[in-house]
Amino acid sequence: MAEMFKIKVEGVKELQAKFDGIERELEKALADAVSQAAIVVEREAKANSERGGNSFPHRITGNLMNSIKELRQISQPGRVESQIGTAVEYGPRLEYGFMDTDRLGRRFNQRPRPFLRPALDENEAEIQAAFEKSINAVTRKYR
Fold it and tell me: Residue 83 forms beta bridges with which residues?
């Protein structure tokens, strides 16, 4: 005759509650890290727009620099997104270039002078560190 045995697991509800708490903490940590990354990109994009020279936009009035900001942050379960940009109409032309005719019939051959993408690319290590710091602060409590 086969032996019978029973297994009793206790504390499943408490464990699930703990996991739910960790999930909420991680989502908040990721939102904080995205906000910190947005601050870095915004700061560097403003510096790039002020810098001028052959690689960056030429500063004339400072309107571009003053208009660069976090346009919106989207937070959904499992996803946080931040969009940094400018509301000035010539911002995309500077970032991507413009080789066409505008609505007034003027012909342009304007090469790109990106200020946003380099702000992200050149600060990847600082942005990565912000994410690691935020996530480690949460996971350290549960080791």
Answer: 72
What distance lies between CA 109 and its chain's CA centroid? 31
Instruction: Give pTM, 2 decimals.
Output: 0.77
Q: At what angle do helices 124-139 and 12-51 cross, to 10 degrees?
A: 160
Q: Which residues contact 43 (CB under 8 A, 6 or more apart)?
A: 119
List the one residue out of 139, 110, 115 whose CA is nearest residue 45: 115
pLDDT tens for 93-110 read 889 999 999 889 999 898
pLDDT beyond 80 at 60: no
φ, ψ for residue 60, nearest 5 deg: -115, -60
Q: Which amino acid is at 59?
A: R
